[in-house]
Design brief:
The structure is a single chain. The protein starts with 6 loop residues before the first strand and ends with a helix. It is 38% helix and 21% strand. The strands form two sheets. Strands 1-2-3 form a three-stranded mixed β-sheet. A three-stranded mixed β-sheet has the order 4-5-6.
Length: 128
């Protein structure tokens, strides 16, 4: 599990989300509830961002319309996640069966603690 991840609030703008993802040089952001807890409710991946931007261009929407789009409008739901005490093999099986490359990891209170990335797992396996 990696603790190298970013979160955005559900009501954060798409522009804010894009800037945060680019600033951290990551390819996703975990969307959390708007309250003070780190309860994940969705995930935004690069493909979600690209799809939203392309849909805006297809509608001939002005770029300024992107500032009106919120993270909750773009995020993938339902969120698929693993628990902190779950064996890695179970997490891998879940990632494989759901065809996902990033899996948020939550604790018993439902707060995000990290993420499991398929590329990190494959890199670690290749070093064995």
């Amino acid at each position: 599990m990696s603790t190298d991840f970013i979160t955005v609030r559900a009501d954060d703008s798409l522009i804010h989300t894009i800037k945060k993802i680019l600033q951290m040089d990551l390819n996703s952001a975990i969307v959390i509830e708007n309250n003070t807890k780190n309860i994940p409710v969705g995930i935004i991946k690069l493909k979600d961002l690209l799809r939203t931007i392309m849909e805006a261009f297809d509608r001939d929407a002005p770029i300024s319309d992107l500032s009106k789009i919120l993270a909750k409008d773009v995020m993938s739901v339902p969120l698929i996640y693993a628990f902190l005490d779950q064996p890695i093999w179970d997490a891998l099986d879940l990632m494989y069966s759901k065809n996902i490359s990033i899996l948020p990891v939550i604790d018993s209170q439902g707060e995000i603690q990290g993420v499991v990335r398929m590329n990190s797992i494959l890199k670690n396996l290749s070093e064995l």
